[in-house]
Amino acid sequence: MYDLFFQKLNEKISFTAEEQAIISSYLTTKKLRKKQYLLQEGDVCKTIAFVQKGALRAYSVNEKGVENVLQFALEGWIISDLYSFMTGEPATYYIDAIEDCELLLITKAAQEEVFAKVPKYETYSRMQITGAYLAMQKRITSLLSLSLNERYLNFINIYPNIVQRVPQHMVASYLGLTPETVSRIRKRLSAK
Amino acid sequence: MYDLFFQKLNEKISFTAEEQAIISSYLTTKKLRKKQYLLQEGDVCKTIAFVQKGALRAYSVNEKGVENVLQFALEGWIISDLYSFMTGEPATYYIDAIEDCELLLITKAAQEEVFAKVPKYETYSRMQITGAYLAMQKRITSLLSLSLNERYLNFINIYPNIVQRVPQHMVASYLGLTPETVSRIRKRLSAK
DNA sequence: TGATTTCATTGACTATTATCAACGTATTTT
DNA sequence: AAAATACGTTGATAATAGTCAATGAAATCA
């Protein structure tokens, strides 16, 4: 049932069967159909979601209605409005399903009980957020120092599976480009 | 001696005097003169540095010799090449002192012993990196969705103290702009 | 203190990408 | 199955920031 979830955990730290049983007891499952929201701006984000199946994105919408994609999540990834989750403040972005999804959810209260009962889970959690921090740092470096061509190439190198499953205009938004520009970059690249 | 350091810790979680004594015993101090390196590209980053006094920056240098500022750190902040620190791989960026600095250092081995002896310190560490992650997320949003004017204004709003202490061309680099562009933005803003 | 280097500003020019609009195709909805 | 919507591509144009170069001021160094 929770195979992928524990596979990911055990890649970083090994958990015993008992520990896994304790953790499991705090998880709930949720299915989302394509285009459904997991979270809407203004709601408080009550859970962190682990993706068992499907694809989601987190995005904000500015005054002019322009969408900015902050994050994608595929199988094995985690997605949440972490600021809202941590503070209880209303969310500043939306999370919705790009494909039909199966998720595992954990609430803040549940997470804290698991931290208390299975300290290794807090270590895992620290390592997980550290990894997310480092990935984000790479993204900033890519935004600051690469040409648009390199930025796109770098992206499809790191996330080949995203490019195949996500509409191009969302990728453009993630990269800070217009859809037209991504289309032209692809054209240039395919000409070579 | 370690006043500022424990002040920062206690803002998030309170530590007893004993706990603070244990943690202290794992810290070392280091002074840096302006322009000295804390870390050079290619070295393994052995420590995380807490800034007691002064200002530093982390930056990478590309093939053309262009510097890209990834991070600033002032009093009370933490700075490190976390990827190198975590993995033991050679650092991909430099850290140097913008002003004379006084630092507290903790090695990876020391950190792990402290995690074992004072579990709360791991909780603190998780919260600290989570905060850094969220700050970085805001920076990405600023890079993706704000006009250059707004980006500069947003920066001086969040970090007024950095603008006063750091050369303008480093701020420009942090914002992904040329020094000329920042100069023109400032001119435009002062005209209003 | 005088010399040297670093830094910020300004102007002229160029390259690049966003914007706007139109079109054809694919996908979704009813 | 037909209609409506969403998506990607292409072209023309405009706006914007980068590049290059020169200057003066400030900070650093010897």
Could you walk me through the main structural features you see in this protein, from its secondary elements to its overall organization?
2 copies of one chain form a homodimer. Chain A has a domain at 3-118: Jelly Rolls, CATH 2.60.120.10. Helix content of chain A is 52%, strand content 21%. Chain A is built from 9 helices and 8 strands. In chain A, the strands form 2 sheets. A 4-stranded antiparallel beta sheet of chain A has the order 1-8-3-6. Chain A has a 4-stranded antiparallel beta sheet with strand order 2-7-4-5. The longest helix of chain A is centred in the last third of the chain and has 27 residues, at 119-145. In chain A, 30% of the residues are buried. Chains A and B meet through helix 3 and helix 5 of A and helix 3 and helix 5 of B. The structure holds a DNA duplex (30 and 30 nucleotides).
Task: Provide a concise account of the structure shown.
Chain A has a domain at 3-118: Sandwich (Jelly Rolls), CATH 2.60.120.10.
